[in-house]
Amino acid sequence: MNLKNLKNINKKKAIVFIAILLLIIMVTKSCFNKKVKFEMPPTAVEVENMQNRNVLKTVILSATLDAKRDVILYPRTTGKYYKTVRKEGSKVKKNDTIALIERDEIGATYERLKVEATISGIVGDIYPNVGDRVDINTPIALIVSPGTIRAKVKVPQLYYPKLKVGNKAFARVDSYPDKIFTGKIYLIKPVVDSSKRTVDVEIVIDNDEGMIKHGMFANVELVLDGVFDKPSIPTRAIKEDEKGKYVFVLGAENKAEKRYIQTGFETDMLTEVISGISNEEKVVIVDFGLTEGETLVIIEK
């Protein structure tokens, strides 16, 4: 092989090498310029539909319940307690005979004296035993009217400006843990107890079914302010920026959507929503630094 042929071969090899090198550079550059698509994992959130509720500021107080109207019956003369005609728990009408008293004056015979109910209601207590001596100051029986029950509570003076006759109240008794009895304020004493810094308030509670008994203990939730049966969401779901208050809702393809809302009455737990979202939309209640457009996954309660 002569020198000229050798040079031609080396020249061809060089061209092929350069072509391969250029191809490698182009492929490598293409790979580096290509953007790698990275998707964040879905954000776990707790959601809740907006719903109509009572949004209330309340104070919870303890009370012993008693009949709003009750009477104690006394005999009109002295003698011995002869007989119980209507037992404790019996329903009675006005003028029904509750008990009989035997007058024991020496040398005289009298018809047994009737002790009669002065109101309709239920016999709450029979105090004496048969044979006991009684006089005009001896209590014979307690008659209670069970239709309404009275609760007397002492409200801290801090809440006095919010107290109004007619404000609603809710009572719960241990005997019926799943039952809420409704009532309202009917009397607010115009003075403050200087030693306890409290105001005496009386509440009447509906007891048409007769479930509450005279003397039961109750926790009374007294409404100070608020709105009833209004669209509301948990207050912790609401955030605020320079434009106003907003929430995140579960949007299309489970993406977070930012919604500005108009709110009404607010408490630490619930806030009334006037506009901005509908009852059908799922509002994000619990999130951790959520931003609009994030993919969401719902935490099952």
What would you say about this model in short?
The chain is mainly β and 301 residues long.
Distance between the termini: 87 Å
Strand content: over 45%
| Quaternary assembly | single chain
Average pLDDT number: 84
Rg of Cα set: 41 Å
Strand order of the largest sheet: 2-9-12-11-10-13
CATH class of the largest domain: Mainly Beta
* Number of H- or I-type helical stretches: 1
Corresponding CATH superfamily of the largest domain: Efflux pump adaptor protein, beta barrel domain
Topology order in helix (H) and strand (E) letters: HEEEEEEEEEEEEEEEEEEEE
- Tally of separate domains: 3
> Main β-sheet: number of strands, strand sense, barrel status?
6 strands, antiparallel, barrel
Named CATH topology of the largest domain: Elongation Factor Tu (Ef-tu), domain 3
Regions with pLDDT < 50 over 5+ consecutive residues?
none
CATH architecture title of the largest domain: Beta Barrel
Query: Structural class, judged by helices and strands?
Result: mainly beta
Shape: rod-shaped
Describe this structure in words.
- β10 and β11 form a beta hairpin.
- The model has no long low-confidence stretch (mean pLDDT 84).
- The longest helix is centred in the N-terminal third of the chain and has 31 residues, at 3-33.
- Helix content is 10%, strand content 50%.
- The N and C termini lie far apart (87 Å).
- A six-stranded antiparallel β-barrel has the order 2-9-12-11-10-13. A four-stranded antiparallel β-sheet has the order 6-5-3-8, with no helix packed on it.
- The chain has three domains: 43-54 and 230-298, conserved putative lor/sdh protein from methanococcus maripaludis s2 fold; 57-65 and 146-228, Efflux pump adaptor protein, beta barrel domain (Elongation Factor Tu (Ef-tu), domain 3, Beta Barrel), CATH 2.40.30; 75-139, RNA polymerase II/Efflux pump adaptor protein, barrel-sandwich hybrid domain (OB fold (Dihydrolipoamide Acetyltransferase, E2P)), CATH 2.40.50.
- The protein is mostly beta strands and 301 residues long.
